[in-house]
């Protein structure tokens, strides 16, 4: 299978916009039906062998525990209960309004009392339109979704390899439904006071110093897929630090800087996998050195996932 196949945003924009809203519907059900965890780690999707999953959640109001999966091989939504009952329906041929109705119907058929607390898109142009009234977004191209799924799976494995190099507090590899990206985050334990104007999502997500690495599929701001990394809060001088490879750049976004390596630039290299890992490493060290993680004992690098001092010394020798 080709590593990092072509995935121009314009080739699947309408499908992406529909799918993004589908996953927001289910993501908001996950938000309502799962116990809150630090930094909102309970909310994003995780990957399976065929798609993405909410992971088991509930029970809600006396119903059974349940799980909702997107199957991007058979192109179905599947709702399963702990008791083994299941309801599924195709993802093709549905508007967002149809998908919202059919998802709630599937839950009700299994005796599950769960629904989004705010059934509207999050941070999208139609954020004031209820899911139940969105008949505009209805494009679902299975071939395009299959390509998205292959890229998502490959980036997931790459981020797992990157995550293995850090022994400090690290998030799982998450597929975020609100921004439609996939990322992993390294933390220090330094608390970061947030301004009174910060919204609850930001306050919890960035309550500690972080350096994140991830990938998004393109949007109106950056209209092409790209690998990215950033430090929050941003240390002074970050954008002046060099990145690898030379095609990587620091870009300004929402008042701070983010390291970008465009997907097509990575694909064009002799070893895209190694290129992206080197990019993440260069961005991480730019942030870690300026924030003093090394000096505070919070760098905690562990090449190859090895933390045993004897094994690490033997590998180094």
TrEMBL record:
Q: Which domain of life is it from?
A: Bacteria
From which source organism is this entry? Actinacidiphila epipremni
InterPro entries per UniProt? DUF5996
| Name of the protein this chain belongs to | Ava_C0101 and related proteins
